[in-house]
Amino acid sequence: MRNPKTVQLLHVEDDTLCLIGLNRAFKAAKIANPVSFAHDGIEALEMLRGTNGRPRLPRPYLILLDLNMPRMDGIELLHELRKDEELKKSIVFIMTTSGADEDKVKAYNLGVAGYILKTNPANAFLEATALLDSYWRVVEFPAN
Questions:
Q1: Which of 136, 125, 77 is nearest to 97 (CA)?
Q2: pLDDT truncated to tens, each residue of the chain (144 aa)?
Q3: CATH code, domain with 45
Q4: What is the extent of the structural domain holding 65?
Q5: Number of folded domains in the chain?
Q6: Which of 129, 134, 135 lies closest to 22 in space, CA to CA?
Q7: 85 in helix, strand or coil?
């Protein structure tokens, strides 16, 4: 049985190398939290809602979101999350190569917890891992 305090991570990213990089950083940091992957916003919504034959992602969870993806990008996903009564309080960190102020403003206006730039992918994954590890060790999540 899963510990209800264990924070599940949903990494929404279309670049397989980024998925592998973050997974390696988690292993190197000995972070054992369960991680699920979605390749775009549509797949992420299916996982969060438990639709289209996908099991619903257990709570509590934290979303690590790329902005530039096919079908439904990160900003579009954030809009969907914030207008959904069940998902609007989801904790989301952006992890992207976009340093554009316009993207940062849009993301923060949609209530993201943080914006991480992937300027140097190796360091970005290690920094993101350290940030997330500290975040979910310190912050209390509701059970539902």
A1: 125
A2: 344 467 888 989 988 877 777 777 777 777 777 888 999 999 999 999 999 999 999 888 889 999 999 999 999 999 999 999 999 999 999 988 888 899 999 999 999 998 888 776 566 666 666 666 666 565 666 665
A3: 3.40.50.2300
A4: 8-111
A5: 1
A6: 129
A7: coil
